[in-house]
User: What shape does this take?
Amino acid sequence: MGGKKKLTLKQAERMQSRKDAEEKKKKEKASGPPKEKKPSAVVPPDPNNEKIVGELKKMNVLTPYAVASRFNIRISAAKDFLEQLEKNGKIQLVSGNHNIKIYKAD
Assistant: This one.
């Protein structure tokens, strides 16, 4: 019958040593300094803060994802924050649907 032939002892030892060496390299790469993962804040920043509004004006396009990643807040909080800024007249809605809205700074 066909099928894979059984390896000799020498071949099996070589394969095992190579496999061990590869696993050791992977562990060394993975065991580097752990990255700190900060939990996302639920509370959005203050929409009346001029420093925050100034940072938003530097951005070309304001989307909930961009704001959430910039200020390290949740996307739902970023959506609420952008809606407050639109009501205050500091940004304006460019385009959007029920999933995502795109704003630009005035």
